[in-house]
TrEMBL record:
Keyword Hydrolase set for record: yes
Annotated InterPro entries: MutT-like (IPR047127), Nudix_hydrolase (IPR020476), NUDIX_hydrolase-like_dom_sf (IPR015797), NUDIX_hydrolase_CS (IPR020084), NUDIX_hydrolase_dom (IPR000086)
Native organism: Streptomyces spiralis
Cofactors (names): Mg(2+)
Protein name in the entry: 8-oxo-dGTP diphosphatase
UniProt family annotation: Belongs to the Nudix hydrolase family.
């Protein structure tokens, strides 16, 4: 059995809003929305990977807060784990630097107005209570 590789996703929260990132690459994912993040490198703690990925992808200084219970399968051997995160005081505003062409801060009522990647939908649903929103029955 192949060992699973953890991909960390950030439920980046600010003022009751969640940051969503639109993929620009690869072509089969372009135009769909996701929680920003990326692969945990060998020997790296997931929380450290999350902070590194947000710096690389969005140009921000963030802090991982807590892991959202659960894990979600991506294409083998990858598995998504999601942490809530906040921008550190003095951080730059998020900007799409790598693999994304647009960012949006979504309020609970806006969450389902973007076409999320299928594999991110259950993770977004799990993150919603942190925004004080009820999960839809979708």
């Amino acid at each position: 059995m192949t060992e699973r590789i953890v991909v960390v996703g950030a439920a980046l929260l600010d003022g009751g809003r969640l940051l969503a990132a639109r993929r620009s690459a690869p072509p089969e994912l372009a135009g769909r929305w996701e929680l920003p993040g990326g692969k945990v490198e060998p020997g790296e703690r997931p929380e450290a990977a999350l902070v590194r990925e947000l710096r690389e992808e969005l140009g921000v200084e963030a802090e991982a807060v807590e892991r959202i219970p659960g894990s979600w399968p991506l294409r083998p051997p990858y598995e998504l784990h999601v942490w809530t995160a906040h921008l550190r005081p003095g951080s730059a505003a998020p900007a799409p630097l790598e693999d994304h062409d647009e960012l949006r801060w979504l309020t609970p009522s806006d969450i389902w107005t973007v076409p999320w990647l299928d594999q991110d939908v259950p993770a977004v649903r799990a993150a919603l209570p942190r925004l004080g929103a009820a999960s839809p029955d979708a």
